Known about the structure:
The complex is a heterodimer of chains A (383) and B (123). By secondary structure, chain A is of the alpha+beta class.
Amino acid sequence: MAxxxxxxxxxxxxxxxxxxxxxxxxxxFAGYSMPVQYKAGIMAExxxxxxxxxxxxxxxxxxxxxxxxxxxxxxxxxxxxxxxxFVELGLGRQRxxxxxxxxxxxxxxxxxxxxxxxxxxxxxxxxVNAARKDIDYAHFRxxxxxxxxLQVVEDRALIAVQGxxxxxxxxxxxxxxxxxxxxxxxxxxxDGIDCHIARAGYxxxxxxxxxxxxxxAEAVARALLADDxxxxxxxxxxxxxxxxxxxxxxxxxxxxxxxxxxxxxxxxMQKRRREEGGFPGxxxxxxxxxxxxxxxxVGLRLDGKAPAREGAEIALPDGPVIGTVTSxxxxxxxxxxxxxxxxxxxxxxxxxxxxxxxxxxxxxxxVADMPFVPNRYYRKPKS
Amino acid sequence: MxxxxxxxxxxxxxxxxxxxxxxxxxxxxxxxxxxxxxxxEAGRNLSQGDEAAVVESVKAAxxxxxxxxxxxxxxxxxxxxxxxxxxxxxxxGAWFLKMKVGNSGQLSDLMDQAAYxxxxxxx
Lengths: 383, 123
C-alpha cells in the first residue's frame, strides 16, 4: 500500500480481479500479488476449511513437464536429481519429492504426477514452489540428459479445493473427481472445461488441486464459490492449516542446508532409492538413515497462550539453547500455539520438556507428535 | 476526558493524570484475529517509544509502543483470557493499559479524532 510502484511490479494470477472483487487483502508473495485473507479473516477461513471446503488460488506455484521419449527415461532423469522412485510410479499416480543439492540439502520440494493417459508416456508433471521456480528450472535445464526436456507451463492456473466437503463440491461439476484415490490424478472436464485434477493438498484434509486453463480459471472458481460449502481462503489460513497438518514450508522448515532425513520427510524416499543411492548427497543421506541425523525437525506445543514464531530459540528447561523454531503460530483448530523446529536427535523424543524463548521470556513447551490435527486424507473403501 | 491518537494507531484517553491506552479499530482490522496480548506489569516506567505491549494475531506479532512517558498503573487482565476482545471492542473494553502521565507536554504532539480519521484516510 505504501509503495505503489512495488505493487505494480508484482505478477498477478488469472484470479487477481476475483480476489479484489471478493474483498481480499492483497500482499506481495514470491513476486506475486496474492490474497493473504478475505473479509472473513484467517481464523474463520481456517475453521471453514476444516469443517466444509476452502478454495485457494495457488496459481503462483510453478507448473512444468519433464518430457522424454518414454516413462523410464524421464523417470530416471528425475531420479538422478531426487531421492524418490519414479520408475515404479503408476499411471495417474502422484508422489511428493525433493530436489537435492550435492550436499543432500533440499533445493525445493515438489509434487510429481505421472499422467494417466498412455499417450502422455514419457511425461511427468511437476508442481514447484513459486519462490523457487527460477532456481528449479535452471537446475533441471543444467542437469537433464539431452533426450529429456523441461517444458514450463505458463498458461494454466492452479486452484486447490480443500476440506471434508471439497471433493463433493468439485464433483458437482467434474463427477470423475470423486473417483480419484488419494495422491492420484486425471484429466477431466469441469463444466466442459479441460482440467487436470489431483486428489492431494496442503491442509491435511481431503481435497483436490486443479490445473485449469488460465482463461477459464475465473469461471471454475466462480462455479465453486457459488456453492455454499466453498469459501475463498487466503495464504494466511493456508499457512496455519499446513502447520497444523505438520507439513513443511520451503525456506522455513526445510532449505538448502537441511536433508530430507533432518526434515523428517523420509517418506519421500522409497526403499530402492534408500538402498541404491545414486542421488545428489547420497553419502550424507544414507549415513543419516543408518546412524540417525544430528538434528531433526519436530513438532512443539506450548503450554501457555503466547505463540512462538520462526526464529525463536529452543532451550532445555533453565538450560542452554539447543535449537530454533522454523514455523510457529496460533493453531485455530487446536486452539493453542504450536510450532516446528530443529532439535538434536537426543532431545527430539515426544514429550521432552523444553522452553521456547520469546522476547526474552522462556515459555514452557513440549515435543509433540505431528500432525497436530489428524489427517483426513481420502482412503478408498475396500470393495 | 480527552482522547488522543498516535500515528502508530493507538488511542490515549486522558482523565486527570491517568492515560488509558489501547489500539484503534483501524489497527485491529489490519492485525486480524488477535490470539494473544502481552502486557506490561504495573509499576514499570515507560519512555515514549518504548515497547509497551505486544499483540499477536494468527499471522504475526506486532509491538505497541508507549505514546508518552509514564508509569504503568494497571494492565487489562481481561485480555489474557479474551484476546479476541481486541477485535470486538478495541476502543472500549479492550483497553491495554493505564499509565500515570509522566510528561503531559507529549500529548500535544498527538492527533485528535478528526486529525486521526483524516490520517487513516491517507493510508
